[in-house]
Amino acid sequence: MAGTGDIRVQVSRHDMVKTNLGSWSTDLNTTTSARLVEGNMTIPDGTAFIRLAFRCSENVTEAFFGNPRILRRMTGKLIVDGSIIAAHLTANAIQTAHLDAGVVTSQKLAIGFGGNLLVNSDWAVVVDGTANPKTVKHWYLNLNGQTAAEVSVIRREAGGDWAGPESPVLEIAQTSTKSTGFVDVRCFPPKDNSGARGNGWPVKPGDWIEVSVQLSAHRCRGELYIEWRNAAGVLLGSTPAVTLQNDMGETRNPDSWTRIWTKGAAPANAAFANLMLRKKGTISGTNS
To answer: In whole angstroms, what is the distance from residue 14 CA to residue 22 CA?
Structure first.
């Protein structure tokens, strides 16, 4: 960080109702030369959330913060990036017997291009911050058939029904009984700094891609696909549909919703892959 006045980095901790239980912060920084600041704190009992903040005093005219990271350590010190390499490991030294059940998951592994390839998958970036309800960036809508006129795709805000206590969800809502047609939502990363829509994640023939989503299906059927596109962005095909129907889960706990997933190998001439979610028409009731 660097700045023209008094600036600091602060980490605060809070209980389940967001009461502030205390904080840790760096020393004040008054130099215009960038420097690395770091520290650690032990999280005491009763803490449910932590928050990262960048703080500036009134006399600051410019402040710069870059590459913020919060890391969890289990015991001892954190491992420095790049400090463990193959030369430090004895052949066959790490076996499944040395790993606790569940400690290695796909979220903790850099797979292919590096972890989760989806952009804005936490729905944090919206198209228009003043709109209510909000639509999210990099997730694109396609309408087909009778359901099209009565469908909206919006961000359902955190803390309400059918959302998480601290995390929003993406909702595809239909306000009619129409049962034919469908609505597709696709995730496309931006192709350049302008934010213009790209064609998907780069792949080459034979590459394996896996996608998954936790889904709450209300009186309808949801479907998950991987689509394949050539270098010009032309659709080549998709994986078979994986479906979930009339399976709602808990009202305020998206982590309890059923996770559906699929995987596929990129076909000949494939240059891009993208995720697609499809909502089919209303099965029962007046909406879905």
So the answer is: 8
Is-above-0.70 flag for pTM?
no
Tens of pLDDT, residue by residue over 5-54, are 677 777 888 776 677 888 777 665 656 666 677 777 777 777 777 777 77
**Which CATH code is given to the segment(s) 139-280?**
2.60.120
* Intervals of CATH 2.60.120 along the chain: 139-280
Structural contact between residues 155 and 171, judged by C-beta atoms closer than 8 angstroms: yes
Tally of residues, the chain: 288
Q: How many CB atoms lie within 10 A of CB 157?
A: 14
107 three-class SS: helix
Q: First and final CA of the chain: distance in angstroms?
A: 48
Burial bucket for residue 65 (CB in 10 Å: 0-12, 13-18, 19+): middle
How many other CB atoms are found less than 10 A from the CB of residue 217? 22
